């Protein structure tokens, strides 16, 4: 049975015996199972929705949208072809895994291009 109602101010949506909780607590939306709640909200500007292998998962199984951090990078995209948007070494990273586009500054230069073959656009200093 699918259950939809409220308990302790939270909306309950899920299967009997393993209810998913959806509501707010401390500014965060809680979505998960009782006794091991998954947090869905924001922390440091990132959306937090469960963890799997250190990644935050948001979406449907088989085509999960990933939003969290791994190695200091913010990950947003689909499993198998992640779009990386965050910072590494002071650079902003935006692109697909294995072929990142770098947009930021390094040594006073603006960097725009592919990793390992950066195009430098800007004035030094």
How would you summarize this macromolecular structure in one to three sentences?
It is built from no helices and 15 strands.
Q: Can you describe this structure?
A:
- This protein is mostly beta strands and 125 residues long.
- It has a domain at 1-37.
- It is 0% helix and 65% strand.
- It has no helices and 15 strands.
- It has strands spanning 2-7, 10-15, 21-25, 28-30, 39-43, 46-49, 51-52, 55-60, 63-70, 73-78, 83-88, 91-96, 99-106, 109-114, 117-120.
- A 6-stranded antiparallel β-sheet has the order 1-2-3-4-5-6, with no helix packed on it.
- Strand 9 (63-70) and strand 10 (73-78) form a beta hairpin.
- The chain is elongated and about 60 Å long.
- It starts with a strand and ends in a 5-residue tail after the last strand.
Strands in their spatial order, largest beta sheet: 1-2-3-4-5-6
Quantity of strands, as a count: 15
Work out the helicity level: under 10%
Could you state the order of secondary-structure elements as H and E?
A: EEEEEEEEEEEEEEE
Judged by helices, strands and strand pairing, the structural class is mainly beta
- Describe the main β-sheet briefly: 6 strands, antiparallel
Distance between the termini: 65 Å
- The count of helical stretches stands at 0
Summarize model confidence as the mean pLDDT.
49
Oligomer: single chain
Strand content: over 45%
| Poorly predicted runs | 33-39, 41-52, 55-66, 77-82, 118-125
Could you say which overall geometry the principal axes of the C-alpha atoms support?
elongated
**What Rg, in angstroms, do the CA atoms define?**
19 Å
């Amino acid at each position: 049975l699918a259950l939809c109602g409220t308990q302790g101010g939270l909306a309950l949506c899920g299967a009997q015996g393993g209810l998913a909780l959806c509501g707010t607590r401390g500014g965060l939306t809680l979505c998960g199972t009782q006794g091991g709640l998954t947090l869905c909200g924001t922390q440091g500007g990132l959306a937090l929705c469960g963890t799997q292998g250190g990644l935050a998962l948001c979406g449907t199984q088989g085509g999960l949208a990933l939003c969290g951090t791994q190695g200091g990078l913010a990950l947003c995209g689909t499993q198998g072809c992640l779009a990386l948007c965050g910072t590494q070494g002071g650079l902003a990273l935006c692109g697909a895994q294995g072929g990142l586009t770098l947009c930021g500054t390094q040594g006073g230069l603006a960097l725009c291009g592919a990793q390992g073959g950066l195009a430098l656009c800007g004035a030094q200093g």
